[in-house]
Amino acid sequence: MMVEMLWKLVEITIIIALLIPIAAMLVWVERRVIGIWQDRCGPNRVGPFGVLQSLADLLKILGKEDWIPPFSDRLVFVLAPVIGAMCVLMSFAVVPFSPSIGVSDLNIGLLFFLAMASLAVYSVVLAGWASNSKYALLGGMRAAAQTVSYEVFMGLSVMGVVLLTGSFNLREIVLAQADGWLIQSQFIGFFIFLVAGIAESHRLPFDLPEAETELTAGFHTEYSGLKFALFFLGEYLGVTLISAMSVVLFFGGWLMPEPLASWLSPLLWFIIKIIFFVLFFILLRTSLPRPRFDQLLKFGWVVMLPLALLNLLVTALLRLTGVL
Amino acid sequence: MLANFASIDSLFYLAGLVAVIASLKVVTGNNTVHALLYLVVSLLAVAVCFYLMGAPFAAGLEVIVYAGAILVLFVFAVLMFGLGADETANAPQNKNVANMFGAMFLAFALLIEIVIIINNADLQQNLQANVIDSKAVGIMLYGPYLLAVEIASFLLLAGLLAGYHYAKPDVTRGPL
After folding, report:
1. DSSP reduced 3-state for B67
2. Residue A25 placed within a domain
3. Mind telling me how many Å the CA of A25 is from chain B's nearest CA?
4. B60 — contact with chain A (CB < 8 Å)?
5. For residue B151, what pLDDT is reported?
6. Which of A144, B15, B70, B88 is deepest in the core (most CB within 10 A)?
């Protein structure tokens, strides 16, 4: 009993100790890859190919003054970035990384992920409010409206997966895809989940809460030093999380078709799939312009919500008639 | 999991204590946003209580619906109207004794009820023995309680229509 608990603690520590450097490395990967796609070098000075750029950034950020504005609400101001990073890290608790690795086989794993995604919005909203500045407040309000709207059909889009696999348990959802990944039948659900996921992690093109051109830096205008770094960490962890969830729900998790499956270990296949989606996120950022805020909300409610409902209805119909 | 009842019990009471303290802070604080935050903490603690009582589905929905959606709207409203500072100055100054103690009386009645429930050993066993998963909830909702679900959905539809009606721009005066 005691040994089991200790082993679990070690597993949790290892996963967190790997996730945070990975998220930090993503900053370098993103800048470097965007540079290559835009036909320039990107950061290539620190270490071989610039891989140590994130380390340099971290040292720089540690050296910055950690300033709390005197006009802010101190408690909430400090709490906001912590809530953000914590909610995303908590979500990783239910992600099954490989047949043997994974913190918890919670029987409501998918609901837990949705719950943590909906709690993460407090980070942005409270940061906007506590900063007591106009730009931050506007960013916070945009974040609240955007996240509440897109959360609705994020939940609806994954219900098709639950319908077909008959489980909220993420490990069982992966195992149910042994005969074929769910993307075959749930491609509309996947598309909706991906769009909602980008909006939830407020990445470009849906980064309206922090749109630089109009809001300076949006909700984190007043943040500096380590607290700013925590927001950054939360964002990149969020990208990794949405990629991991897309892989688990629609692309078979660690499973691969047979000739490929024996080449690499399941964990490596899982990581390769995640890297693919992370690169896709970065490609989106380089290629799409930012919509106007009213266009964003209208697109959500008028296009995505009916599409999500239709997807659920058709999936249920096909399931009932035995086609799927 | 069921082998160590003692620790589950203590976790339950710990979560309950958190919920009670957070709820007290909600009604005693002066800062609107801090009060809302305490309300979120209280709801999360109640979700933990649900989970420990063997209703993980209810716990998940408690977090998603209450803490994740409804209270975000509350916070949104607070941001919109620029509340947050001390609001007690605007509160009605109520001197009526009956108004002050009426609510206390109701809460006291609820307290007695809860004490009776907790003292009832049979009920306790039922509470701890049944683990209700999402499948069981679904079967109940679309089986014996189908009528209630449909009535609730009609009520929501009516609310949606009313909301649409109020939010519709006034066509006679044009936009703005």
Report:
1. helix
2. no
3. 30
4. yes
5. 92
6. A144
Let me know if residue A160 belongs to a domain.
yes
Contacts of B33 in chain A (CB under 8 A): 73, 76, 126, 129-130
- The answer to the question of residue A51 being in a domain is no
Whether B123 and B116 have beta carbons less than 8 Å apart is answered as: no
For chain B, domains (ranges, CATH) are: 5-87+112-133 (1.20.120.1200)
Number of domains in chain A: 1
- Residue B170, by phi and psi: left (phi above 0), alpha (psi -120 to 50) or beta? beta
Q: Which of B63, B69, B78 sits opposite A148 (nearest CB)?
A: B69
Q: Compare all CA atoms of chain B with the CA of A122 and give the residue at the minimum distance.
A: B72
Please indicate, yes or no, whether the overall pTM of this predicted structure exceeds 0.90: no
CA distances from A144 to A114, A125, A279, B63 (A): 16, 6, 27, 16
pLDDT digits (tens, 9 = 90+) for A77-124: 888 888 888 888 888 888 888 887 777 777 788 888 888 888 888 888
Task: For residue A144, list chain B residues with Cβ-Cβ distance below 8 A.
Answer: 72-73, 75-76, 79
Q: Kindly tell me if the per-residue pLDDT of A174 is higher than 50.
A: yes
Q: What is the pLDDT of residues B6-48, one digit of tens each?
A: 566 777 888 888 888 888 888 887 777 778 888 888 888 888 8
Its domain, for residue A145, covers 68-320
Answer whether residue A23 is part of any domain. no
The model's pLDDT over A247-285, given as tens digits with 9 standing for 90+, comes to: 998 888 888 877 777 788 888 888 888 989 998 988 888
Q: Do A119 and B63 touch (CB under 8 A)?
A: yes
CB atoms within 10 A of CB A155: 20
ipTM associated with this complex: 0.75
Residue B167 has pLDDT above 50, yes or no: yes
Helix (H, G, I), strand (E, B) or coil at A38: coil
- Dihedral sign, CA of A150, A151, A156, A159? positive
For residue B133, the chain A residues in CB contact (below 8 A) are: 107
CB contact (8 A) between residue B69 and residue A75: no
B64·A114 Cβ contact <8 A: yes
Phi-psi region of A42 (alpha: psi -120 to 50; beta: other; left: phi over 0): left
Chain A residues within 8 Å of chain B (Cβ atoms): 73, 75-76, 79, 106-108, 111-112, 114-115, 117-119, 121-122, 125-126, 128-130, 137, 140-141, 144-145, 147-148, 151, 155, 168
